[in-house]
Amino acid sequence: MSKPKSTAPCVRYFYLPANSSRDAEIIQVINSGGPKVQVPMREEDIELSAIFERELTSSERLTYRNSETWKVFTSWDEVEQDHISFGLADEVLLVLLSLSYRFKLEEYIAVSA
């Protein structure tokens, strides 16, 4: 018997890998509607699956109400600073940041010859 999915609002994270024209990104969806998102791209829309899910903080509940809100991060430091400002529990933040080893957010620097 499968466990029913929660219908409560939550925050989900999606990883968009780098390609030749852009750096990798973490897309945070507050009040996420499901474990997959369609990301509009110039070439073709991409469907991503969530890599992490958590409950909203009380500060996020007040700030975002029931609005689905996307935030895009290009570094794990940005993720950490944003989450500290919204009062994410240290234990949850540590688990989230542990994903940085698996989901790299590296900037690609062009080297001229």
Q: Could you give a short description of this structure?
A:
It contains 3 helices and 5 strands, in the order ββββαβαα. The protein is of the alpha+beta class and 113 residues long. The chain has one domain.
Shape descriptor: globular
Distance between the termini: 60 Å
Query: Could you tell me the radius of gyration in angstroms?
Result: 15 Å
The percent range for strand residues is 25-35%
Uncertain ranges: 108-113
Q: Which strand order spans the largest sheet, edge to edge or round the barrel?
A: 3-4-1-2-5
Report the major sheet: 5 strands, antiparallel
The number of distinct β-strands equals 5
Mean pLDDT: 87
State the helix count: 3
Order of helices and strands: EEEEHEHH
Structural class: alpha+beta
Helical content stands at 10-25%
**How many individual domains?**
1
Question: What are the key terms here?
Answer:
113 residues, alpha+beta, disordered C terminus
Architecture overview:
This protein has one domain. It is globular and about 40 Å long. It starts with 9 loop residues before the first strand and ends in a 15-residue tail after the last helix. The protein is 23% helix and 28% strand. The chain is an alpha+beta fold. The chain has a five-stranded antiparallel beta sheet, with helices on one face.
Q: In terms of topology, how is this protein built?
A:
Layout: E1 10-16, E2 25-30, E3 36-39, E4 46-55, H1 58-64, E5 69-73, H2 76-85, H3 90-98
